[in-house]
Structure to design on (777 residues):
């Protein structure tokens, strides 16, 4: 089944982009060695609340991802078969992406990952300051994702939860016009967890980004969703601090848990647009243009319509092939364009791949560097 | 505790019929793997509130298991027996709290990478039961009807895309008095073929008046007080620091109809329990009427296996912050008819899929109609597939054609 999903994506991608198989290209000198820039930047964009092929790469779904199809995929090496063998909960799965180990903690607990994160490897091995790596994430439990509980590490990324910041900024005034940006956790629509921990607080962020609280809230008024707020904050981070490793987790499409298909589709279209916007931002910024490798991947998929144990797009509870099999694209200097990689890889391979690109050792990670891009 | 140690007295906390069933079958239960017994008890403990079709299905499974030689039974359930459990799960009181056990087991299976093995065991088990003790066909050819798009004046969304290959797409249907004609057709079937919980009408707004005692009616509007009571309970629990989403889920799962002020007609505790389960187990059913209709239809099909189902979608509220929607504060929120039509279009597809999972699916019929408009799609054994029709027909005639 996973192979069938992969095959569908591959065939479609070849049709629309003229992409070639990576296997045909192996044996050539690694292009990265020729083009590796000196001050490399890496952006990782994950979707919490994966988009299924039905709503993206299948014929009826292609209308939802015009930016991915026409702007980003032609520039990327595309992995058609990323198989997630871990727990399909957004925080624990994203933490697994960030550690390279399938974490097994309670998805709804406010705990740090058990294994060192990519941010800790990056800072410790490369002796980078705290300002050089950041996470921008939704508010549902992600505040602990920047640093693990592993004692030998612990200096990781600052975590920015834009919704929390906005809520804090609105404490003293009317928040009615911003309510659309404060949507709570979707994975359990019935519960928004209390957050306490390591996230960056509003005054600190305002100081870092050289933006006033009133400017922040004024800008927020013109945005349509929490993910737009996240991308706004991420772009400000790039402008002011130009971190070398920036991790953005988008989460709008997880509204699917509330069972509304139209809202889920709206969110996919928004995510598609935001991904292109992030890439454009890297290309227009002198600190990033020509130096940035960007990875885009859903944390996992969602249930198939055909699995009677689930309820289709609404959840990711069955553990079926469609919910476990997703994709990843990588683009930037040294990454081959319009290449499709069919072999199965795992999300755990991301951290070792980032290690190979940036020059740190992901020694506790269980994945392997992806030779096609690292 | 091991299943072999089960004693009749341990079921004293079960409702009467559930207790009787468990005690009668105790010799069989003692011979089954612990995981499987716990999951079976989760069904048995709710026996008093189950629909006739569910009872028949549970009885069928127990009879089949009892008919097997010990070694065959062991082989059938080997996938469950092979699961590795934690010490906590082994010590857990799965006799009295099988629901909570199931929640914990699920988390354990995910964390230990055994969830796929569990699914394989479950699918294998059901497949073998179905082959060994097949369900009989329904006594009346099943009919599913879905009505979508109430309140939409103009539509540009391509409707029924996922279903068109299966039947005939009508483009010039006469919509006049359409809802009434469908209700009449459904009531007529219910009267002619009475079956307890065999004919259903689910409405995402207020239910139309139907004078047919044989029709089981559920509506989003009628459940407004129960929804509000549920949301209030959840809000209070969250404010009191209940301890996380899982604790909240456990608390909600234990709610009884009377806890949310639901008291149906005398003797209809089964329906009350069903309605509470739709609100407590269906994610989003408390806040979006479209989700409510889709999930209620799915659960009615899965559990009651009705001979007739009419599910009518209504506009849901616009998207607002989740915490605001959950608080239930705004009594008359703005509606989103266009978005609701898209929700309902997908809901119709899911309803057809769920109907297709029941016995006799190959001979059943299905109709989806864009309310107040000329578009409909019909699927029936006698109709061609992947076809478009511009013939002028009304809903009474169309239902007549497909049943």
């Amino acid at each position: 089944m996973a192979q069938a999903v992969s095959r569908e994506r591959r065939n479609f991608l070849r049709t629309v982009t003229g992409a070639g198989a990576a296997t045909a290209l192996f044996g050539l000198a690694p292009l990265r060695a020729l083009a590796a820039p000196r001050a490399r930047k890496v952006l990782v964009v994950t979707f919490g609340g994966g988009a299924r092929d039905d709503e993206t790469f299948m014929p009826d779904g292609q209308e939802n991802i015009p930016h991915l199809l026409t702007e980003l995929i032609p520039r990327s090496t595309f992995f058609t078969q990323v198989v997630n063998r871990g727990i399909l909960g957004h925080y624990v799965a994203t933490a697994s992406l960030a550690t390279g180990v399938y974490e097994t903690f309670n998805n709804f607990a406010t705990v740090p990952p058990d294994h060192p994160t990519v941010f800790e490897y990056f800072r410790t091995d490369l002796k980078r300051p705290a300002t050089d790596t950041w996470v921008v994430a939704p508010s549902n439990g992600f505040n602990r994702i920047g640093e693990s509980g592993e004692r030998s590490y612990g200096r990781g990324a600052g975590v920015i939860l834009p919704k929390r910041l906005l809520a804090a900024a609105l404490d003293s005034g009317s928040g009615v016009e911003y309510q659309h940006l404060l949507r709570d956790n979707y994975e359990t629509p019935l519960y928004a967890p209390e957050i306490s921990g390591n996230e960056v607080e509003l005054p600190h962020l305002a100081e870092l980004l050289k933006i006033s609280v009133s400017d922040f809230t004024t800008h927020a008024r013109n945005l349509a969703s929490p993910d737009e707020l996240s991308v706004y904050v991420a772009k400000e981070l790039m402008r002011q601090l130009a971190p070398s490793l920036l991790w953005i987790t988008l989460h709008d499409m997880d509204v699917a848990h509330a069972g509304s298909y139209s809202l889920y589709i709206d969110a996919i279209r928004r995510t598609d647009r935001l991904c292109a916007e992030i890439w454009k931002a890297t290309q227009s910024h002198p600190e990033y243009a020509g130096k940035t490798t960007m990875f885009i991947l859903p944390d996992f998929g969602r249930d198939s319509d055909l699995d009677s144990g689930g309820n289709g797009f609404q959840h990711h509870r069955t553990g079926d092939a469609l919910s476990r099999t997703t994709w990843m694209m990588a683009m930037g200097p040294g990454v081959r364009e319009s290449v499709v990689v069919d072999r199965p890889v795992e999300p755990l391979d991301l951290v070792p791949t980032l290690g190979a690109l940036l020059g740190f050792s992901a020694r506790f990670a269980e994945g392997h560097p992806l030779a096609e891009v690292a | 505790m091991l299943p072999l140690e089960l004693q009749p007295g341990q079921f004293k906390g079960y409702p009467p019929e559930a207790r009787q069933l468990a005690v009668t079958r105790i010799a069989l239960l003692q011979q089954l793997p612990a995981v499987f017994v716990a999951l079976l008890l989760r069904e048995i403990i709710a026996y008093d509130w189950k629909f006739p079709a569910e009872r028949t299905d549970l009885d069928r499974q127990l009879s089949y298991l009892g008919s097997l030689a010990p070694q065959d039974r062991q082989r059938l359930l080997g996938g469950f027996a092979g699961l590795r459990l934690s010490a906590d799960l082994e010590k857990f009181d799965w006799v009295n709290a099988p629901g909570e056990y199931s929640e914990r087991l699920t988390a354990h299976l995910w964390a230990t990478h055994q969830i796929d093995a569990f699914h394989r065991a479950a699918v294998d088990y059901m497949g073998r039961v179905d082959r060994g003790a097949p369900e009989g066909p329904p006594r009346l050819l099943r009919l599913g009807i879905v009505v979508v798009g109430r309140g939409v004046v103009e539509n540009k969304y391509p409707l029924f895309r996922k279903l068109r290959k299966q039947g005939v797409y009508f483009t010039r249907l006469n919509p006049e008095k359409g809802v009434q004609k469908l209700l009449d057709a459904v009531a007529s079937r219910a009267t002619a073929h009475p079956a307890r919980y065999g004919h259903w009408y689910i409405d995402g707004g207020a239910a139309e008046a139907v004078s047919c005692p044989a029709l089981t009616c559920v509506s989003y509007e009628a459940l407004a007080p129960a929804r509000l009571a549920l949301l209030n309970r959840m809000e209070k629990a969250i404010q009191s620091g209940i301890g996380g989403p899982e604790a909240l889920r456990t608390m909600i799962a234990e709610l009884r109809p009377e806890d949310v002020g639901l008291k149906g007609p005398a003797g209809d505790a089964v329906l009350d329990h069903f309605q509470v389960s739709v609100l407590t187990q269906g994610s989003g059913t408390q806040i979006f009427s479209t989700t409510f209709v889709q999930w209620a239809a799915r659960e009615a099909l899965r559990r009651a296996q009705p001979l007739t189902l009419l599910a009518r979608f209504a506009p849901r509220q616009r998207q607002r912050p989740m915490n605001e929607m959950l608080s239930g504060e705004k009594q008359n929120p703005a509606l989103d008819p266009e978005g609701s039509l898209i929700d309902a279009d997908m809901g119709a597809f899911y309803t057809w899929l769920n109907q297709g999972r029941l016995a006799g699916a190959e001979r059943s019929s299905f109709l989806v109609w864009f309310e107040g408009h000329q578009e409909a799609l019909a699927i029936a054994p006698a109709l061609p597939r992947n076809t478009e029709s511009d013939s002028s027909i009304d809903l009474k005639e169309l239902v007549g054609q497909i049943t």
Q: What stands out?
A: The mean pLDDT of chain B is 93. Chain B has two domains: 3-132, 143-223+282-402.
